[in-house]
Specification:
Strand order of the largest sheet of chain A: 4-3-5-6
Largest sheet of chain A: 4 strands, parallel
Oligomer: homodimer
Order of helices and strands of chain A: HHHEEHEHEHEHEH
Largest interface: A-B, 56 and 56 residues
Strand content of chain A: 5-15%
Chain lengths: ~200, ~200
């Protein structure tokens, strides 16, 4: 826009690069930050700057943390014999939110993707192998049920097999509250394959 | 969340206070800012900090600007005889984007709202009156067609009447591309009232 402020434009451009923020939301947020007073804007800017200064990866599980090792790796109450393997920190947050899993985690930092040139060395797979010891009873592979996620799961399962540890995969099927007709063929096939006997 | 980073939580909280950002988007943005590297995060933080340091209100029209008076008030090519009166800077941006208006602006900084205790003294109404001089031929009142916007428009029209200046109000009616049946009764009534003779 011919007459608008360069500072405002730069902020709107920076906001547009964030996921899920379009041009209109970016403008609304920028104008909100002007109108709300300096305090709120400075607080937000500081929180963004703190991110890279204070938050880093746990050297054991690669979860995001301010202290190394992270709180989960340090917690003696968590079951050390089970490790849940995930793609990204956001997946860890999603599982933690359910409260159902009380073991440890391992964040791969992505998935194998031969087409994008992402191989084993780009992920924290060797670090997972180093964590393996006789006390570990189960590795739960919780990568996403995508082509790459399944490929990564299969690769890890093959790698872990010689260690004679139980390797499991999170269930794939119809989402809770979903309906059969709105699920794609692959989901339906996997749901059929993964059927369990109903206990009476 | 029990194990999450305090720094991350603070950022997610700050992002949630922005308009249109919910808990899920805030988390996605925060994780994006960690993964994208320090450069992008610092750029965004700096753009937010610059906002209050560099951008302020034009002392003539109260548009947002980095120089006072703003580029529109300084521009000799803009028609000085017409002033378009608006609620907020975002309304000015919306009209500028159409390119249809080449006069000057006056941003009120809100609308009269007796229930919220917002009276004449809270808006830049006196400053508008001081801008009035015999060279001004038209005041276009472009407050929003809400209860408060209409109240403010009526108030301004009454205030400007003794100055024998032409006071106009932007047209209210069916939005372009809209259909009659999906518009509320007030919009339809105003569209009927505001009907114009079709030129042949």
């Amino acid at each position: 826009l011919e007459y608008s402020s360069r500072t405002l434009e730069l902020l709107i451009e920076a906001l547009c690069r964030l996921p899920g923020i379009g041009a209109k939301s970016a403008q609304r947020i920028a104008l909100h930050l002007i109108q709300e007073g300096k305090g709120e804007a400075e607080q937000l800017a500081q929180a963004i700057l703190d991110l890279h200064n204070k938050v880093s990866s746990c050297s054991i599980c690669f979860n995001l943390t301010e202290e190394d090792p992270c709180a989960i790796c340090r917690d003696p109450k968590r079951d050390e014999s089970r490790i849940c393997v995930l793609e990204e920190p956001k997946d860890l947050l999603a599982i933690e939110r359910t409260g159902i899993f009380r073991g440890k985690y391992h964040v791969l930092g992505g998935v194998l993707s031969p087409l994008d040139g992402i191989g084993e060395s780009h992920l924290h797979i060797q670090e997972l192998m180093k964590r393996m010891h006789p006390g570990i009873s189960e590795i739960i592979i919780a990568t996403n049920p995508t082509v790459e996620g399944e490929l990564t799961a299969a690769y890890l399962a093959r790698l872990l097999k010689p260690l004679s540890v139980k390797v499991t995969r999170i269930a794939r099927g119809i989402p809770y509250g979903g309906s059969l007709e709105f699920n794609d063929m692959v989901t339906l096939s996997k749901a059929m394959e993964g059927r369990l006997e109903v206990e009476s």
